[in-house]
Amino acid sequence: MNKRQRLDTVFAGGRPDRAPVLGGWIASPGLLMQITDSTAQDYRADPEGIALDAYRRLEMDGLIDLFVTPSADTYRNVDHETYVKASNSQTYEQAEAKVERLPSPEEYEKGFDFDTAYCHFRKKLIDTQTKCGDMVYMPAQFGAGAVASWYGEYGYENFFLLIGLRPDLGAKLFRLGGAIGRCRSRIVAAAVQEKLYPKAVLLGEDICTQRGPMISARFLQEHYMPALAYGLEPLLEVGCRPVWHSDGDVRALIPMLLASGIEGFQGFQPECGMLIEEIVKLRTRNGGKLLIFGPMAVTTELPVLTPDQIRQRVRHVANVCKDEADLVFFTSNTINPDIPLSNVLAMYDEMKKR
């Protein structure tokens, strides 16, 4: 099978010649330079080209993104000065007034310029796919489905105060988030119909900490999950399987997510109780097997295990998912400089044997 056939087979619930492997989240320029025998000067001149060369050498079947940093000396795109989610200089009163002025979901959808948005998305997709060659470019679409992470707009403190003090405005944000997510889903669905995007998409929201949901599960079930179900409809209608990015302890939300139309999970922090051995036993709302992107942990596995232990873990995952879930090998999150190159190479080499 070629790379696209391998991915398409898994997304359709079939059995490929081996489990596909996804890349795109190596966030360490040092690792990318080692894999490609490149210098810092080479990286500065063309970080995207170096990343693509690395993924070709690692024989990735698909790319979930092209994570590159502005220099060879950093491994994150944000730092303590640029990370605005904690505070963005708005007072609570300003945030509240801003939410009150937001359009209704119906007004947002009516004003959405689908043709222009899809034109931009389509061009970016085609241009990047050309660069990727035979690797399938399937960028994550975290804005699809429904928007929940409004803390990026209003700051963490203001957002959670809004939920607690003005639950009516919190509900309004989630309803609007469903309209925004549905518009984004329509764009992806159109690309799926044109066969420019495969029939699975990574999406989701960081709404859980390592101890569970940031907002009460009851509030999310009442206000966020209906919005998510509405936002996922365009994807499900064209047979595109939504895969939820699950940082933290998502267990309390999993039944709700599945009922809303989520068909798979990516992430898995075993230290938070997110165990692949348990999750693969779950089924979609239609009784189908889950689609798994993962679950190699960048916290408790890749930085600390030996290459032989990494290989054992890959074999274990393959055995656990066999007959239980549709598996695409991937990492739980970005590969950072604390992960040794020997572990990265051992992981990808063993994955291609499964």
Outline of this structure?
It is built from 15 helices and 10 strands. It has helices at 3-11, 29-36, 40-45, 47-57, 92-101, 105-111, 114-132, 151-154, 156-165, 167-193, 217-237, 254-260, 276-279, 307-321, 341-351; strands spanning 22-23, 62-63, 136-137, 200-203, 208-209, 212-213, 241-246, 264-267, 290-296, 325-331.
Describe the 3D structure:
The chain is globular. The longest helix has 27 residues, at about 165-195. It has a single domain (about 80-350), classed as TIM Barrel (Alpha-Beta Barrel), CATH 3.20.20.210. The chain is an alpha/beta fold. The chain contains 15 helices and ten strands. It has a five-stranded parallel beta sheet. Strands 1-2-3 form a three-stranded parallel beta sheet. Helices cover about 50% and strands about 10% of the residues.
Write the layout of secondary structure elements.
Blueprint: H1 3-11, E1 22-23, H2 29-36, H3 40-45, H4 47-57, E2 62-63, H5 92-101, H6 105-111, H7 114-132, E3 136-137, H8 151-154, H9 156-165, H10 167-193, E4 200-203, E5 208-209, E6 212-213, H11 217-237, E7 241-246, H12 254-260, E8 264-267, H13 276-279, E9 290-296, H14 307-321, E10 325-331, H15 341-351
Parallel strand pairs: 1-2, 2-3, 4-7, 7-8, 8-9, 9-10
Antiparallel strand pairs: 5-6
